[in-house]
Amino acid sequence: MTQRDDNSIENKLTSIKYNCSKNTHLRVNQEMCRNCQKRPCCYICPAKVYSWDDTQSKLNVEYENCLECGACKVVCPFKSIDWEYPNASCGVILKNS
Questions:
Q1: Domains of the chain
Q2: What DSSP designation does 35 have?
Q3: Which of 5, 37, 85, 89 matches a 20 to 30 Å C-alpha distance to 19?
Q4: What does residue 82 show for φ and ψ, rounded to 5 degrees?
Q5: At 18, phi and psi to the nearest 5?
């Protein structure tokens, strides 16, 4: 039997509550993303919001999973991520009500 790691990032992410917006608060410049070879946004994001699709030469953005940490915007070498806070009452719910 494998012991479960209650402190793993994957386990902690399942406990976060979201109020998803119908509109994205993350926009990327796909042309700039095609020129990026290291794609640090795909590795820095703890919620795995970004993934590269080789078949379509496109950066996929699952904004619904965003933890609003802003690390993606900071690490992008081309400054191609336009990051804003989600609309009011949307996004991560940080405290219990």
A1: 25-93 (3.30.70.20)
A2: H
A3: 5
A4: -95, 105
A5: -130, 150
